[in-house]
Sequence to fold (280 residues):
Amino acid sequence: MREGSAIGDTFHMDRLVIGAASRAAAERIAALHKPFGARHTLFADNASAELIKYASNAFLAAKISFINEMAHVCEKVGADIQLVAQGMGLDRRIGPHFLNAGIGYGGSCFPKDTKAQLKIAEKVDYDFKILRAVIEVNVQQRRRFAGKVKQALGGSVRGATLAVMGLAFKPNTDDLRDAPALDIIAMLQEEGARIRAYDPAAVSRAQSLLPGAELTDDPYAAVAGADAMIVTTEWDHIRRLDLTKVKTLLKAPLVVDGRNVFDPGLMRDLGFTYVSVGRS
Fold:
């Protein structure tokens, strides 16, 4: 069950995986879940069921890290990562899900489960190289984005006021566990930036985690007088911002979008300097 989607996932589950040593016990558990109408039910031994859970999340994390690596290649060769992801997703063997380039994954599940799967492999003396790279790329993606912000501001953020839009690791939750925005803010603060951050749900939780940052639940208060707007969570609240108003409030019309929330053509037409991930 995905965080923020637990009810929908319960009533419309793709599959029900039951790990049990006893077939009779497994069938009783399956009967309890029958009213929810899972499309597939799989009985497995306990070890296999546990690995199905870890392997599923590790594979999705790998898709995210892969598309983020592709985004860097796109920037180098002048390609558009969203078109690349769309073309990949049309292949039924790949599918469109988890191919959104950005600042990487966070939250409670993917970081925990990738590390757990790595630890399981280590305990049986196996070097899970692909998964190790997935985790490394995810960490690097945050550093790269902080560098992208720095570059957009002429090579230094010292003394700059940055309006960071979004703190939670994903929309529709106030969860800040391993949220990319927190690491990126810390990196920018170390470089001397002043942070004014907005989130529609996570501000109260973030107070103790972001010393020195000014937090607000008003997006327009966040951007007022800022040197740039930095997008770190793809909230609909941010997608629906009055961009003309944002432009008048910013000190300079600069937006660095870590979630590819806005359309580059529209941003150009509105007169913004717009920097995103994997798109020219």
Remarks:
- Residues 3 and 65 are 20 Å apart (CA to CA).
